[in-house]
Structures are given as structure tokens and as C-alpha cells.
Request: fold
Amino acid sequence: MIWRVVISLCAAVALSGVAPALAAERSWMARWSDEEIAALSEAVSEAWTHGLDPTVYPDPQALRDLPFGARRDDIARAVWFAYAEDLAFGVVDPRALDPDWTAPIHDVDLLTAYAEARESVGIYDSLEALAPAHPDYQALRAELIRRMALVDAPILVPPGEALSRGDEGPRVDALRARLVQLGLLPRSVRTGAPFDARMESAVMRFQTRHNLAADGQAGASTLAELNAGDARRINQIRANLERWRWLPAELGARHIRVNIADYRLEAWEDGVVARTHQTMIGQRYSRTPVFSEDMSIIEINPYWLTPGGLGARWVRTFRTNPAYALSQGYRLVDLDTGRRTDPYQADWANRRYRVIQVPGPNNAMGRVKFLFPNVHNVYIHDTPHRELFANAQRDDSSGCVRVENPEELAVWILSAEGWSPQAVIDAFDSGETRRVRLRHEVPVHILYFTAVSDALGRVRFVHDVYDRDDRLVAALADPPPYPPEPSVLEASEGEAAPSP
Reply:
């Protein structure tokens, strides 16, 4: 048997000279007892419950059968470090999959954890403690165990035209049977019955649960989710368990968490969700990145400094139809002087201009923007198009996160600054631009999870809007190197940047 732990074993042996300075000599050099080997074997036997591939670790029984001695100690130590590293940091380096990934890396001192495992905590408990303790991770792990134990295969709905109310036939019967299997319809329905209002309601509930357009019709996207068997869901859970392992253990006592795939913002306080908001995210050509930064400024009734791509459109509008641009709240600014310019008097041949938008009902930032400086230039803000929050799929923005009911989010954030709710409302209603620098900065985590748990710990699967799951599942089986191979870097540098 070829074990992946050979590399970790070499690292462990290389470190043995300095380990006594970092941990007790007994912890590093003492013989592994039979009880410790049994505990290590038990821990490794549960690797699959964390979504990890058990074949990359030694067979648990083979570990137990190793004879007492130095060779067993070296192997056990290497196995502990290999498994501990996967639990603590994940199998895949997220930066190898997404160059824009800038969330903080989970930091754990494994040498200290190993010393504690040998001295006090115990082998099994030390490894379990390295896995994320967050309730969402534990809910996903429990769901994985349940799915692995299921024996009923999903009832498949044959492909074809979208099914809707009034349709009938074998495909409708299969759809009904699948909805019954999922607990969305009662069983007492005769074969051959048409697609009725009750069935339409069941389809809509399924679509809502999976962040699909809740139109009550079983089209291609809905059928793909309905036909997803346990193998696909198991891989989806494994991918999301890995995403949790990438994150730091502490996200902040008071923080904001945006799940891109779920179009959802959660404000957390002391371990519980204080409030939730629906969001819009970047379109596929301008995907919202995964990262973490601290919110430091709230700007009420903001100006909008248009970026290069979007601003160029309005510069052209000022040249061809300045009256319309002015009516939408846009103003022309001379780049050399920083002063506003009358578009009717602009020197288009010799001067350079930028477009800003003044506060008002048409402002692209809406009534407020929440700033947390980052390399992506992505923020959370309001929108003048609040009607779009009624859509099930909301990948509509140019990359930033648009938030529903932003005034209420501002009230929650500014309460820690000593603002009363009425003071926040008055600031909005004044119409004046107010830039508030936060004394108590709020960590903001922009994340991507396609399997999430609800308040009762049940797992809900959402649409993989950016198609990231399959690539991560493949990487779990064959982790890509980081930094990427030179050929990969050269290829990416040669690609044209996406148009705005």
C-alpha cells in the first residue's frame, strides 16, 4: 500500500530535532501506546464523515496491527499530522482554484496541538477539535452521514419539455412520485392524474428551497435539481465541508456574513443571527469574489464615483444627450482640476472627464453604502432597483453586493457606535451626505456555500450559481498545486480581461 503520509513522515522526522524546544520531549519522542494507536485508528476510520477520502490514509486495522516500536511511532506521528492538516486547513488550497480568493487563512499551530494530544487532550479528541466547530459544519457532517446510509435511489423524471399545470402522462407521474419521495406531496394521488394546482404549489416550494425561479413549472433547471441523486448531494456536502475548513475558527463576535450562492446576508452577534437580508450578487461575467475585510465606513446618501467601464458609457451620454445624463443625477468632473464642468461647455478635444452621480432616487448606490476597503473594490450597498429582490435568482450586479432594507442594516451597525434608530433614520431623511467612520469595525465575510443549514440544523441545497462545486470536488481527489504550474500562469496571463 502506498500511503500519502510519506511526505508528512519526512517532515515530522526533519522537525524532530527542534520539536523539544516547542513541545515536551515526551510528546515528541515517547513511544505510542496501544491505546493511542487505537484512538488514532478510530479517528482515521471516521475521515469519510468529514467528507475526506479515507483511501489517502492508512487502513485503520493496518495501523492497529503495526508492531510496537520506533517504526510504528514514526508512522503514527506522520498519520496524525497528515490527518490533522486536512482537518485544520482543508485538502485544497483555495487560491489554487480561485486567484481572487483573499479570505483569511485558518491558522493553527499543529506542533502545539500534537504536544497537547500526547500530553493531555488525547489523540482522538485532538483531531476532532481541529475540525471546524461551527454548527453549520456539524449539520453538514450529520447530513453526509445520513446520506451515506440512505438506500432509496431518487425517482428520476425523464428529460423533455417543461412540465406545467394541465400536463399529464408518464413524465407527470414520475414528477409526482419524486415530489412524494421528497415529502412535498401526499401519497394518495392516482396514477395518470394531471398536473394540478397542488402539484404546482409543491414544485414552487421545491424551487424556492433551491433558489430557483418559483414559477411552478418543471423546466430544465428544476428537473436537474429534482433528479440530483445522493451521489451528487454527497459531493456537494463534501465541497461545502471543505469550504468551512478554509475559514478561521473565529469570524468575529459581531460580524456580517454574505453567502453569495444563497443571495443572503446575515448579521451575527454573540453566536446567533441578529438579522438577515436578501442580496443581489455579481453577474457571471463580474462574479462577486470570496474575501474578508473589516467594515470601517458607512456613507449615507452617498455620491457615486463611476468606475472606468461604467463611467465611459455616461461620458458618451454627456457628449450626445447631456440633458438626460443631468436628469439622472450625473455630473461631469474635470480630471485635471477635480471641478464640475458644464457639459455644454466641455472641451472634449483637449480635456479628460469623469462622471459622478449625486445623491438622489436614481443613485446607483441607493441611499447608503457600506465600505470595507479591499483589492476587489467590492462593497455592500443599496440599489434604486429594489423591485429586483422579488426575483429568485439575483445575479444582477456588476460585482458588488446589493442589500435589501439597508436602512435596517445601518441601524444594527450604528447601534454599536451609540446611534439610536431615530438618529439613523434622521440622517437618511436629511438628504445630506454623511460619512461615518466606525470606531468598532465590523468584520465582513463574503463566502460561497451551496449547502446551508437552517435554524433547526436541517440542510438546504441551493443553486450553484457560479458552477464552482464540480471543480472543487475534482480538486479534492487531485489537489492542484499552489502557486499554479508555470504553464497555467502563462495561460491565464495571456487571456483577455472580461468586458465590464
About this structure: The chain has four domains: 6-137, 170-228, 252-302+366-453, 304-358.
